[in-house]
Description:
CATH 3.90.470.20, two-stranded antiparallel ribbon
Amino acid sequence: MEIIAHGIDLVDFPRLEQMIERHGQRFIDRIFTAAEQAYAGRHRNAVEKYAGRFAAKEAILKLLGTGWRGKIAWTDIEVTNNAAGRPEVVLSGEVKKIADRLKIRHISLSITHTANFAIASAVALAGGPGEMNI
């Protein structure tokens, strides 16, 4: 596998919390998939979990080189966790099409939190047939 792109993002909890308070469920539904909402809802500090996923989505858009525009939907990027708790990425829609055009076969993702911030780092990997796929 070859590293072909990297993206990183930092999210301030209070700023995201203000967006949620101002726009409510409409904002949450626009940004986060049902699975991401369920994940955040299972934790004491849902804003922290939302911030990590928001940072991950931004980092992924940066590695794609697109930003959020055109036909891209926030929910085209879903952050899940495997059985060990490691974050994983599932792409769909326009984001999946862009990743396929760029020959991205896997995105390695790391998310961490402090008292007020979440940071995510995403690395796009290219590979041949039979190697890891998104």
